[in-house]
Amino acid sequence: VATCSLNQWALDFEGNLERILESICIAKEKGATLRVGPELEITGYGCFDHFLEGDTYLHSWEMLGKILQNEETRNILLDIGMPVAHKNVKYNCRVIIFNGKVLLIRPKLFLANDGNYRELRYFSAWAPARYVEEFHLPRIIRDITGQSTVPIGDAVISTIDTCVGVEMCEELFTPNSPNISMGLDGVEIITNSSGSHHELRKLYRRVEMIKEATLKNGGVYLYSNQQGCDGDRLYYDGCALIAVNGQIVAQGSQFSLKDVEVVTATIDIEDVRSYRCISSRGMQAVNTPKYQRIEVPMALSQLQINKKILIRPTKPTKEFYHTPEQEITLGPACWLWDYLRRSKTSGYFLPLSGGIDSCATATIVHSMCRLIVEAAENGDTKVINDARRIAGETKNSDYIPKDPREFANRIFHTCYMGTENSSKETRERAKNLADAIGSYHIDFNMDDIVTSMQALFNLVTNKVPKFRVHGGSNVENLALQNIQSRLRMVLSYLFAQLMPWVRNRDGSLLVLGSANVDECLRGYLTKYDCSSADINPIGSISKKDLCRFITYARDEFNIPILDGFLTAIPTAELEPITHDYVQGDEADMGMTYDELSTFGKLRKIERCGPFSMFSKLVHDWGAELNPTQVAEKVKKFFFYYSTNRHKMTTLTPSYHAEAYSPDDNRFDLRPFLYNATWSWQFKKVDSLAKEFENED
User: Fold this and answer.
1) Which of 34, 302, 349, 383 has its CA 20 to 30 A from that of 128?
2) pLDDT (average), residues 377-394
3) Contact status, residue 182 vs residue 108, Cβ threshold 8 Å
């Protein structure tokens, strides 16, 4: 049997078809008689509102027609994903085909509609369970298959030697998953087609649920997932799996530059039947409602296998997990590569400040370059051809990226934009990092431009704003900082557009942002400053995880100068440095990065408002802080979070990696105009804090 991870791209019908056919060919070459692909693989999962358009359904049928007609798709049972409209209702479906015939259209029963998912916006859930009716095929398919109607609904496929059922992504995560009733009704092989995105520390939960699906009930479970960036903030992290009786027997990569990866295993179906010989299971099975079985005149088992003594069932293997530091090293790097090659631009531009956030972004780009060189060394022609095009070497058919630093110098541009408030230390750190990773680095001071802006303001208003350390108000101080920040954004786009021209190359560069998830949550950034970019690989990663990543990269990539970033105090360097004042991020914010992570998780993951957040933290932090101190921290967080929430409406599209991301696009939907006093909520917090104090 075979499952796969495909790097599909939303609405890239021809490219998606090519990858589907390649996966089928590989599966057949490996001897598989059943192949399952990712969810909505014909269209790509991330089409969003394009799923409301008739064209999307028409082109899906056209691609399925090409699959049905292709000789390479013969003699293998295929589970293909596409959207289907039935009686003017749209469904997320699997289409099961064999030898040029459609056997079954199986719609999704339980739709994903939380977090990043909005399937109910486009599709309806099929109901009730086990209900099947006739679907009238479109003319383009009738002409190919000679069929007028086929079954649509919650049915299973019965071959000569076994029974195959379908489960789709979210259905695995529901309390009463379809695999339970299918297994009890004698289904021995269950396929799961997913569009599941990467999130730090999430893979373990997915793998455990796949194992659990066959641990109690027995059976074979084939998990397929999309892999890569298909045009959005998400990175689908592959990791195709095959489980038998609660044990993993085959596992694909979680992060890869490959467009097609096929995972196969040899299964002895008698192992499933033996595993299910449990009296209590039989008691439940005889009372389980039956599924309609769609008969197909083929056998998944091959007689020649039994005659070859060297062919044996695939043995169980220990599942593999990356550490969170490795996930940050690989996931955003693969996402950046997909975005770069598919956007047809010439590289990346990064404002490199000398702080740990932009350092992390630069290090991720370095990781991307390392992955490209590794893929080129392994002969990946798709990666090599993309690298040639992006590096401007299309006329040089012999160019192959062999050194990450050399390749980075072609496609990665960094820039230190200093002012009189910048320190020698940050400038040196930026330069040393650029040297270490090989980026094309430029360095300049922009004081003249800042002064021009201030002079213009003075000319118009006859007022001269001052920094706080020079006697200015908070309003003046903030405005003078924001001038510097916003000018850096303007200059970033100027240089990103013209640097390829300066170097006698075509195209333009994508600007990278470097605001982390905690700063976004708190709003500790200037609207339309360098946080405003084309994309941001770290926008959903916490400061703590970024520090751990830099520690890992220092040793893994042998970049000792990263130590300097780890020990430096985080600072925006937007205010003048004096003998008794140096600007620091945590002092500016009035809270630590660790506290911000805690607030973020309670707000989003545990769905806490001010009162319930205080009610939890007063116990968690009670050993270090009294109730009034905890209340003040909670109120301060919610005040700044709500005051700055409007900044999330213009947040740069960021790689999604953290479950408490404040991304306003669709993951974290909140108002952006709050009553920042939270008057009743804060009164309740103060009242409870006072009760706790009186108890003491």
Assistant:
1) 34
2) 94
3) no
CA 668 to chain centre: 15
What is the band of 531 on the pLDDT scale with cuts at 50, 70, 90?
confident
Q: How far apart are CA 300 and CA 662, in angstroms?
A: 47
Radius of gyration of the chain (CA): 28
Q: What is the pLDDT of residue 358?
A: 96
How confident is the model over 72-96, as pLDDT tens digits? 999 999 999 999 999 999 999 999 9
Residues in Cβ contact with 446 at an 8 Å cutoff, skipping those fewer than 6 apart? 417, 418, 419, 484, 487, 488, 491
Query: What tokens appear for 236 in the block?
Result: 């689908």
Q: For residue 280, which amino acid is it?
A: S
In sequence order, the 6+-apart residues with CB closer than 8 A to the CB of 236 are 38, 45, 195, 196, 197, 198, 225, 226, 227, 228, 229, 230
Residue 579, pLDDT > 70, answer no
Catalytic (active site) residue 39: yes
Q: Is 229 a known active-site residue?
A: no
Q: Cα 290 to chain center, whole Å? A: 38
Give which of 489, 512, 520 is closest to 663, Cα–Cα: 520
For residue 200 the two structure tokens come to: 């730090």
Nearest CA to 667 out of 225, 118, 111, 206 is that of: 118
Place of tokens 């693989």: 41
Q: How far apart are alpha carbons 678 and 682 in whole angstroms?
A: 6
The catalytically annotated residue of 177, 196, 346, 353 is: 353
Under the banding of pLDDT at 50, 70 and 90, the label for residue 581 is low
Task: Identify which of 28, 8, 125 has the alpha carbon closest to the alpha carbon of residue 77.
Answer: 28
Q: Which of 300-314, 567-581, 637-651 has the lowest mean pLDDT?
A: 567-581
pLDDT at site 666: 79
Active site residue 402: no
In this structure, the strands spanning 2-6 and 34-36 are parallel
Q: pLDDT tens digits for 322-365?
A: 999 999 999 999 999 999 999 999 999 999 999 999 999 999 99
In sequence order, the 6+-apart residues with CB closer than 8 A to the CB of 364 are: 328, 329, 332, 333, 336, 537, 538
Q: Where are the alpha helices (DSSP H) in 438-473?
A: 447-461
- 406 a catalytic residue: no
Q: Give which of 263, 258, 256 is closest to 319, Cα–Cα.
A: 263
Q: Which of 169, 334, 530, 608 is catalytic?
A: 169
What is the enclosing helix (H) or strand (E) of 482? helix 474-502
Answer whether 541's CB lies under 8 Å from 658's CB.
Answer: yes
From the list 28, 108, 258, 527, the catalytic residue is: 108
CA distances from 474 to 451, 479, 481 (A): 20, 9, 11
Residues 37-46 pLDDT 10s = 999 999 999 9
For the cut 90, the answer to whether the pLDDT of residue 197 exceeds it is yes
Q: Which of 28, 39, 229, 575 is catalytic?
A: 39
Tell me the C-alpha distance between 606 and 621, whole Å. Answer: 17
683 contacts: CB under 8 Å, gap ≥ 6: none
